[in-house]
């Protein structure tokens, strides 16, 4: 079955681009691409042209997420499948493909209206990634950017949409407090996508957080120190997850959703993976930080 194979990029609408720089540049070490005043800011985290785009806007919101396929044939096969299944998919314009730095592009809403894009041919930059602070880099490659978590009005419907239309596979489930979360993968990364019911202030179709995975626990530890030095608010302290075994912490962005910065997640081999059900998201740490 033709399916997406990794998380490729994320676009965000933001009211104050400069307010994001302490997190994205100083802590995470992303490399900003050259930018003219008033233009969108593109950021690199590896050898791809960019992975994140911040668009100047009057309000903060999720703009889109891009899912990658391995071949151009897969792209057109998936387009035909979505069209046949009456998903309202449209192909990207030449200008949109240029701006995303991809060869092929299509878009459609998920069941809650959040814009999903599928692409082939993300541009590999001819210049090496130059991080904004001394880090060992990120676990990307075949595993893509990281993972993303959305809330859904009907979580079961939305999970089925991603499984049936885009080929995601189940990883496991966690139910705790008011949350019921389903985790899915499309490559060896434990999950590239998670779907939960509306909870913890995240409404249907809204982004709860995205995660990036460092190549070294020391990158995460030094980032944790920087967050405290810079006064960047945390939502969860350093801790370790039950399901993917990631050691991480969560920062609050100027838009209100979180960014998880972690290291050491387990990887999935579909030949022997067992889907499990957990009653808590953490083994230790990940303590909730309250803000007045």
From TrEMBL:
Q: Which CDD domains match?
A: BphC1-RGP6_C_like (cd07237), BphC1-RGP6_N_like (cd07252)
Q: Which Pfam families match?
A: BphC_D1, Glyoxalase
The family database entries (InterPro entries) matched by this protein are listed as: Glyas_Bleomycin-R_OHBP_Dase, Glyas_Fos-R_dOase_dom, VOC_core, Xdiol_ring_cleave_dOase_1/2
What cofactors does this protein use? Fe(2+)
Residue ranges occupied by any VOC domain in the UniProt entry: 6-121, 144-264
Q: Which Gene3D superfamilies match?
A: 2,3-Dihydroxybiphenyl 1,2-Dioxygenase, domain 1
| Keywords assigned by UniProt, alphabetized | Aromatic hydrocarbons catabolism, Dioxygenase, Iron, Metal-binding, Oxidoreductase
Family, similarity comment? Belongs to the extradiol ring-cleavage dioxygenase family.
Q: Per its record, how is this protein called by name?
A: VOC family protein
Q: Which organism is it from?
A: Actimicrobium antarcticum
């Amino acid at each position: 079955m033709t399916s997406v194979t990794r998380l490729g990029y994320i676009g965000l609408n933001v009211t104050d681009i400069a307010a994001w720089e302490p997190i994205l540049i100083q802590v995470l070490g992303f490399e900003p691409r050259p930018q003219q005043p008033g233009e969108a800011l593109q950021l690199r985290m590896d050898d791809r042209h960019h992975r994140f785009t911040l668009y100047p806007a009057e309000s903060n919101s999720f703009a889109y997420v891009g899912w990658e396929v391995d071949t151009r044939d897969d792209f057109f096969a998936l387009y035909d499948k979505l069209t046949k299944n009456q998903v309202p998919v449209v192909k990207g314009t030449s200008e949109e493909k240029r701006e995303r730095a991809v060869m092929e592009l299509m878009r459609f809403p998920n069941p809650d209206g959040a814009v999903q894009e599928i692409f082939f041919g993300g541009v590999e930059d001819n210049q090496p990634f130059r991080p904004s602070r001394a880090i060992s880099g990120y676990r990307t490659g075949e595993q893509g950017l990281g993972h993303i978590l959305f809330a859904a009005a009907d979580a079961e419907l939305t999970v089925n949409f991603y499984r049936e239309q885009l080929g995601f596979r189940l990883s496991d489930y966690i139910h705790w407090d008011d949350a019921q979360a389903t985790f899915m993968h499309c490559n060896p990364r434990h999950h590239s996508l998670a779907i939960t019911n509306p909870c913890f202030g995240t409404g249907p179709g809204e982004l709860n957080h995205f995660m990036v995975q460092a190549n070294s626990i020391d990158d995460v530890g030094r980032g944790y120190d920087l967050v405290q030095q810079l006064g960047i608010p945390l939502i969860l302290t350093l801790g370790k997850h039950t399901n993917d075994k990631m050691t991480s912490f969560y920062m609050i962005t100027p838009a209100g959703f979180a960014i998880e910065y972690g290291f050491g997640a387990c990887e999935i081999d579909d030949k022997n993976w067992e889907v499990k059900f957990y009653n808590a998201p953490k083994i230790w740490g990940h303590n909730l930080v309250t803000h007045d």
